[in-house]
TrEMBL record:
<dbReference type="InterPro" id="IPR011051">
    <property type="entry name" value="RmlC_Cupin_sf"/>
</dbReference>
<dbReference type="Pfam" id="PF06560">
    <property type="entry name" value="GPI"/>
</dbReference>
<dbReference type="GO" id="GO:0005737">
    <property type="term" value="C:cytoplasm"/>
</dbReference>
<keyword id="KW-0324">Glycolysis</keyword>
<dbReference type="InterPro" id="IPR010551">
    <property type="entry name" value="G6P_isomerase_prok"/>
</dbReference>
<dbReference type="GO" id="GO:0006096">
    <property type="term" value="P:glycolytic process"/>
</dbReference>
<dbReference type="InterPro" id="IPR014710">
    <property type="entry name" value="RmlC-like_jellyroll"/>
</dbReference>
<keyword id="KW-0413">Isomerase</keyword>
<protein>
    <recommendedName>
        <fullName>glucose-6-phosphate isomerase</fullName>
        <ecNumber>5.3.1.9</ecNumber>
    </recommendedName>
</protein>
<feature type="domain" description="Glucose-6-phosphate isomerase prokaryote">
    <location>
        <begin position="26"/>
        <end position="181"/>
    </location>
</feature>
<comment type="pathway">
    <text>Carbohydrate degradation; glycolysis; D-glyceraldehyde 3-phosphate and glycerone phosphate from D-glucose: step 2/4.</text>
</comment>
<dbReference type="GO" id="GO:0004347">
    <property type="term" value="F:glucose-6-phosphate isomerase activity"/>
</dbReference>
<dbReference type="GO" id="GO:0006094">
    <property type="term" value="P:gluconeogenesis"/>
</dbReference>
<comment type="similarity">
    <text>Belongs to the archaeal-type GPI family.</text>
</comment>
<keyword id="KW-0312">Gluconeogenesis</keyword>
Length: 206
């Protein structure tokens, strides 16, 4: 039986996606261990731990290999200390699954890192399409003063692996405020991956 075609409307300001099959949100208190400034994070959680940092609307038609998952990410503007709000970030559990992101509103960055530890930073803004190639860890950063809204699409069997970043002490690069703009700085807690761990990531391809 064929799957019925569907059409969905995106509100670029709120990221609300009509006829989404799922929605989730991440609040400040859910994001422990992501930011460098532990004291600033603890203070923010004590003051407003319930505050939503980002939310996702998505459509998952079926879980079958070869299908797509698509949706929107809405990110509030803000910082922990001098570090801009970010998504948790992940590599796909099947590492060679790619993804696209398209800017709907606001301005920010796609922070990318290869298994070997190379950093790439791509700016995202309305009408900009970003391609996340297979095997790149990816995290969105809202560097603006307004919400950052993006739409995304990736293969339905990709999965998300959040442990890889955690085991390395975070991503190699952090994005911090620099006057009215941003700059990339090294993450002092970063531990480069061993050859064995890089090989394990490469082995998740099919
Ligand atoms: O899954 P994370 O790293 O919290 O980030 C959320 C974003 O990534 C996605 O998992 C898509 O890869 C979406 O849910 C959203 O674009
Ligand atoms: Fe992804």
């Amino acid at each position: 039986m064929a799957i019925a075609p569907t059409s969905h409307r995106i509100d670029p300001q709120s990221g609300v996606l009509s006829a989404a099959t799922g929605r989730y949100e991440k609040r400040l208190a859910d994001l422990d261990g992501i930011y460098a400034d532990n004291a600033a994070f603890a203070e923010s959680v004590a003051r407003e731990g319930d505050r939503v940092v980002y939310y996702v609307h998505e459509v998952r038609p079926v879980a079958a290999r070869g299908d797509l998952i698509f949706g929107t990410t809405f990110m509030e503007p803000g910082r922990i200390g001098d570090e801009f709000f970010v998504t948790r970030g992940h590599i796909h559990a099947i590492g060679n699954r790619p993804e696209t992101y398209y800017g709907e509103a606001g301005e920010g960055l796609m922070l990318l890192e290869s298994p070997e530890g190379e950093t790439q930073i791509l700016e995202i803004a309305p009408r900009v399409m970003v391609y996340v190639p297979p095997l790149w860890i990816h995290r969105s950063v809202n560097t603006g003063a307004a919400p950052l809204v993006m739409s995304f699409c990736y293969p339905s069997d990709s999965g998300q692996d959040y442990g890889l970043i955690a085991r390395s002490g975070g991503m190699a690069t952090r994005i911090v405020a620099d006057g009215a703009g941003w700059k990339a700085v090294p993450n002092a807690a970063y531990r480069p991956r061993s050859k064995a761990e890089i090989d394990a990531i490469l082995a998740t391809q099919d």
